[in-house]
Amino acid sequence: MTTALLELRGVDKRFGGLHVTRSVSFALAAGDRMALIGPNGAGKTTLVNQISGVLQPDAGAIHLLGEDVTRLPQAKRVRRGLARTFQITTLAPHFPVQRQVELALLEREGLTGRAWRCVDAYAGVRAEALELLSRFGLREHAATPTQDLAYGEQRLVEMALALALRPRVLLLDEPMAGVPKGDGGRLLTALESLPRDLAVLIIEHDMDLVFRFATRIVVLAEGAVLADGDPETIRRDPQVRAAYLGH
Ligand SMILES: Nc1ncnc2c1ncn2[C@@H]1O[C@H](COP(=O)(O)OP(=O)(O)OP(=O)(O)O)[C@@H](O)[C@H]1O
Known about the structure:
single chain; alpha/beta; Rossmann fold; six-stranded mixed sheet; four-stranded antiparallel sheet; 10 helices; globular; binds adenosine-5'-triphosphate
């Protein structure tokens, strides 16, 4: 049996009278590419917020690498191997791309305070940052302020920043949102080049991307798991079609 890197056990959440997460259970192993889909308001973001630690479930448990992290704050989950993509605009958009990635690497190494004034002295950090930029086809933009990149490229920087944390589990919240159709191919290539042994959970409305990328799909409807299976099974599931794909 493969060991789960991330496991949800009966995760439940209410906002007042609204039951937004109804006893959700699923598990991800190394190498899994899971998509979480569902109609607007199905509870996807609320669920991911509970996984990352932004919100606390009312009941149930979340296990990361076999450890119960349900009550751990976000930062501690990150240190244990869980990363999610940042919204780049909330970081320092005027910073050159390479510096952003270097800062994430320094953060990972716990060096931010001390190293801030002499980032260039950290040859290892610089080399790793450039390697990450190359992986995402951003090497030529190393000196470009992030805010001057095309929107699709900014999403690639977000992924580079998340990977800089060397996660075992990566949460991607709508990476395709706002990306022009023509740039989607580049994003898919980047997704496909993620480290093989990483477990990836992606929330995405773009069904082309979901069905190309995911090896497994969990469909959420009204806070509960409606279906969980491989893309072909999900595509044919009449309940799923009625709830979502038929729209
Ligand atoms: N902080 C909150 N307080 C009260 N209700 C909330 C809160 N956050 C979300 N909700 C409600 O919970 C339900 C689930 O919302 P959520 O954003 O998780 O859905 P979603 O599947 O991510 O939707 P979308 O695809 O539109 O992003 C919605 O009815 C939403 O209005």
